[in-house]
Amino acid sequence: MFSNSSSFFGTSSVLKEQAALRESERHRAKRSSVRKESLPIGSNVNVFTHQYTADPTLAWEMLKEKRPVKPMKLDTPVRPDHVRFVCIGCTHGVKIDPADLPPGDVLLVAGDFTTCGLPNEVLSFNKKLGQLRHPYKVVIAGNHECTFDDMFLRASSRELQAKEMALRQALQSSMASSKIANSKSLLTNCIYLEDSVIELFGITIYGTPW
């Protein structure tokens, strides 16, 4: 009886090792499909928006029946034959808690990760990104990332209102004291997209701010 049990557990161990090997091979195959290089915007890249992109509530009412959202536990592992995107946005400077994010292959941050784009906010956000385990982090700026907006920083005083002038002066002073010309350069732990595209796992991601 003991001998049979030993044989059973030995076979079980081999099967587990074989299953783990197959899973590892599938995982490597999935990873090898990643194209890390940014793709320049050109005639070969077409981006089509939904007809109701200006009214996301209406668009969702139309799409939700075909794309149902299923509740998922935060610790749900990623299946080896799947690619998971984890999407967040509008954190407005609040530190990201890794415990609040499920695991995934790509973390997509859709803007407004600061209150106004101060260098110390961007540095804090970048540091937190470096602590997350998602292999790829893709970041797109929002309207709150004012120091990412070159047109705003270069606009003449005639083009800005008094509040905008005061905000720009404060931001430029902060950038000068931090000895940086552009806050975008502080994002070292992610792929930053600004009117540009990148292909990950065979999926093309186009990012445009504001």
UniProtKB/TrEMBL annotation:
Coiled coil: none annotated. Transmembrane segments: none annotated. InterPro entries: Calcineurin-like_PHP (IPR004843), Metallo-depent_PP-like (IPR029052), UPF0046_metallophosphoest (IPR051693). One of its GO terms (molecular function) is hydrolase activity. Residues 87-152 form the Calcineurin-like phosphoesterase domain. Belongs to the UPF0046 family. This is Calcineurin-like phosphoesterase domain-containing protein. It comes from Teladorsagia circumcincta (Brown stomach worm).
